[in-house]
Amino acid sequence: MSTRATKLLAAILALLVLGGLALGARCMSLTAVSCSPATLFGDSPELDVPYAGTRPEVVARMLEMASVGPRDRVVDLGTGDGRILIAAARDRGASGLGVDLDPVLIRQAQANARKAGVADRVEFRVEDLFETPLGDASVLAMFLLPEVNLKLRPRILAQMRPGSRVVSHAFDMGEWVPTQRARVGGSTLYLWIVPAQVQGRWRLEEEGGRSAELIFTQRFDRVDGRISAPTGSALLQDVRLVGLRLTFTLPDGRRWEGEVKGDRIAGRGWQATRLAGVMPVPS
Fold first, then answer.
1. Residues 175, 107 within the same domain
2. DSSP assignment of 62-98, as one string?
3. What is the pLDDT of residue 6?
């Protein structure tokens, strides 16, 4: 064999080896833990988040933090092999939806659900997590990336019902301070409760006919308030908003608690009605 032919053959072999290593790396990457022709040869969609499985003890703690039960509908974004949603259905009686862009993982999740006997209560589909409707979810589960969490945050606040729970493995949501943190082994877990929107002006009416105006400013679930009456105005103290439940202390020391119901807050011996439309809350 000539020297030129030998060099050409060596170059071809080197390309084949490099190509095989590249395909093998794609197969073994966190993004694609299972391989199909589409995954191997690059025809699968570009994923927003590399897939890494959540350990069973972490899954159990996430579901415990979110108080998942039979009445809950869980949406699992970036579901992977479906382990979080399947555990929610199998161990806690919930139903729900898991979405992922990787069709290989979705098929694996569907097979896992059938094996666990919960295929009638969970659905898995290939879908962009940024397009998944969140309005019917009472619990949202995530193991994503910080930038993806932040991009999802406005949709969570706009679409999910107040009182719904959001639980995340490993990453927080920036300025939105979690209601609860937990550690499981080396993992940090975060829980948020979606707050009602109370920002704006409210007409307060007490039993006995006294009335005043409440003014709230809101940043996520952090709320400041003021009460204004003909006799003057003063700051409300220790204002707390957890889901639908709003509590605050009046200047005279009385502690009031009420439930936000759209444009009305109902409490024992008092109620408040929104004076204008819902003011936008920063997201």
1. yes
2. HHHHTT--TT-EEEEET-TTSHHHHHHHHHH--EEEE
3. 53
Q: Minimal CA–CA distance to 268: which of 254, 256, 251?
A: 256
pLDDT of residue 47: 57
Residue at token pair 């605050």 = 248
For the chain, the domain total comes to 2
Domain interval for residue 269: 200-274
pLDDT of 22 reads 42
Residue 112 one-letter amino acid: N
Nearest to 64 by CA among 209, 221, 180: 180
- Is residue 60 located within the same domain as residue 189? yes
Distance (Å, rounded) from C-alpha 161 to C-alpha 118?
26
CA distances from 177 to 173, 222, 255 (A): 7, 9, 24
Whether residue 225 is found in the same domain as residue 127: no
Residue 150 and residue 206 in one domain: no
Does residue 27 lie within any of the structural domains?
no
Give the burial string for 125-140 (b: 16+ CB within 10 Å, else e): eebebeebebeebbbb
Q: Spell out where the chain has E strands.
A: 73-77, 95-100, 122-126, 139-142, 165-169, 180-184, 187-193, 200-206, 211-219, 222-229, 232-235, 237-242, 245-249, 255-261, 264-267, 270-274
Q: Which of 157, 178, 193 is the last residue of a domain?
A: 193
Q: Is residue 225 part of a domain?
A: yes
Q: What is the mean pLDDT of each run of 10 residues along the chain (283 residues)?
A: 54 47 39 43 58 91 98 97 98 98 97 98 97 98 96 98 98 97 97 97 94 97 96 96 98 97 96 80 64
